Automatic annotation (TrEMBL):
<dbReference type="InterPro" id="IPR000709">
    <property type="entry name" value="Leu_Ile_Val-bd"/>
</dbReference>
<feature type="signal peptide">
    <location>
        <begin position="1"/>
        <end position="33"/>
    </location>
</feature>
<keyword id="KW-0732">Signal</keyword>
<protein>
    <submittedName>
        <fullName>ABC transporter substrate-binding protein</fullName>
    </submittedName>
</protein>
<comment type="similarity">
    <text>Belongs to the leucine-binding protein family.</text>
</comment>
<dbReference type="InterPro" id="IPR028082">
    <property type="entry name" value="Peripla_BP_I"/>
</dbReference>
<dbReference type="Pfam" id="PF13458">
    <property type="entry name" value="Peripla_BP_6"/>
</dbReference>
<keyword id="KW-0813">Transport</keyword>
<feature type="domain" description="Leucine-binding protein">
    <location>
        <begin position="36"/>
        <end position="370"/>
    </location>
</feature>
<dbReference type="InterPro" id="IPR051010">
    <property type="entry name" value="BCAA_transport"/>
</dbReference>
<dbReference type="InterPro" id="IPR028081">
    <property type="entry name" value="Leu-bd"/>
</dbReference>
<dbReference type="GO" id="GO:0006865">
    <property type="term" value="P:amino acid transport"/>
</dbReference>
<keyword id="KW-0029">Amino-acid transport</keyword>
């Protein structure tokens, strides 16, 4: 695939700035004689999805550096070739092609959004290079593709966790307001597919665009729909924060459920006081200090939180955690395969069992390239500007 002339200067600049920044320091200690093992990544480190992609990029850099300090993989240095798609799926595909054809990567960890991931999948599938996505859409791994895996819970799993909580609270009718982005559309569709299993129905169904700055009209329709007992907002980015602020401004007192797509401190900051009481499913990483002492994820979450916050001066988020699990899974697969051959890495990934990550405990199988269930989600509620474990309904 030829790169359009207008993109070449931008691609070269991005490659020099990001790849050099990552590979240079990481390869200085210890000294290596062998050629590097190249792992690719395309994330949205800038643009509207930067609050997702920036911690992913920082995490990948941090842990590739850590791998090299410990001797790399198979006695070889690890080089992270990292590109920033700025939230543009077309750029993501262009960078994916470059990673395969020019950079010769043996594995890929990235894809901040579902849209970018879906744009890149054909490139890595055709090349036979394992791709561990950091995006949420279930269509990434259903149907199963030979070389594609993912670390975040699927939107289907999030729907199931939310509906379990609603059912336990006696909620039977809800309003839904969804983003029209790839994630929002996918989660809405998945929720509609499974909601009937919980005795719950959608009696108001609204949506909003990626650039909308006021969702008051849609929320007013939901507010004025008879029988609504709670509201669910499938979406990510800035949209859910706007929905949450408008929700409070309209004085709606019904429970508001958000998705794991907003499981970041930046959502609380964007939504402000209106976030109080919002419920959502999220990984253990957000409440690591509140986990039981015998929880197998507690030490893993603590180590990642300490390392990331020390290195960046920023709080951890679920999105950086997806990157942590992605790079760890690939590194483990390379060590297990005792090879940097992409097909052997793929086979080792699929054979992963019981890997304890910050997002959950992964067990892949030929028919399951996610390896997580609803038990790896924790139901959280926002209290006093922070995360709290939601008490089970009785």
């Amino acid at each position: 695939m030829d790169t359009p002339a207008r993109l070449r200067p931008m691609l070269r600049a991005a490659a020099i700035m990001l790849a050099t920044a990552v590979a240079g320091p990481a390869l200085t200690s210890p000294a290596f004689a062998a050629d590097p093992i190249k792992i690719g990544s395309v994330v949205s480190a800038t643009g509207p999805s930067a609050f997702l992609g920036d911690p992913e990029a920082k995490t990948l850099k941090l842990y590739v550096d850590e791998l090299n300090k410990k001797g790399g993989l198979l006695g070889r240095p690890v080089e992270l070739v990292l590109y920033d798609d700025g939230g543009d799926a077309n750029k993501a595909r262009t960078f994916a092609t470059r990673l395969v054809e020019d950079d010769k990567v043996v594995a890929m960890v990235g894809g901040t959004s579902t849209g970018a991931t879906m744009a890149m999948i054909p490139v890595f599938e055709e090349a036979g290079i394992p791709f561990v996505s950091l995006a949420g859409g279930i269509e990434i791994i259903e149907p199963v593709r030979a070389f594609v895996f993912k670390t975040p819970h699927t939107d289907k799993t999030a729907c199931q966790k939310i509906f379990e909580d609603m059912k336990a609270r006696g909620i039977t009718k809800i309003g839904m307001i969804s983003g029209t982005d790839g994630f929002g559309k996918s989660m809405r569709n998945q929720c509609l597919k499974v909601i009937g299993q919980y005795g719950i129905s959608v009696v108001a169904d609204e949506n909003y665009g990626a650039t909308d700055s006021d969702m008051t009209p849609q929320l007013n329709k939901i507010k004025n729909t008879a029988g609504v007992e709670a509201v669910l907002n499938p979406g990510f980015g800035q949209g859910p924060a706007i929905v949450t602020r408008n929700y409070a401004q309209l004085g709606i007192k019904l429970p508001l459920y958000q998705s794991h797509g907003v499981a970041s401190k930046s959502f609380i900051e964007l939504a402000g006081p209106a976030a109080e009481g919002v419920r959502l499913p999220a990984p253990a990483i957000l409440i690591g200090d509140k986990l039981a002492a015998n929880d197998p994820q507690k030490p893993v979450v603590a180590e990642y939180k300490t390392s990331y916050e020390k290195a960046t001066g920023q709080p951890v988020s679920t999105f950086g955690g997806y990157g942590y699990d992605g790079i760890q899974l690939v590194a483990r697969a390379i060590e297990s395969a005792k090879s940097a051959d992409p097909k052997k890495i793929r086979d080792a990934l699929e054979a992963t069992k019981g890997y304890v990550g910050v997002t959950g405990i992964y067990t892949f199988a030929p028919a399951d390239h996610l390896g997580l269930g609803t038990d790896s989600f924790r139901m959280l509620v926002i209290r006093n500007g922070d995360w709290a474990i939601e008490a089970p309904a009785r």
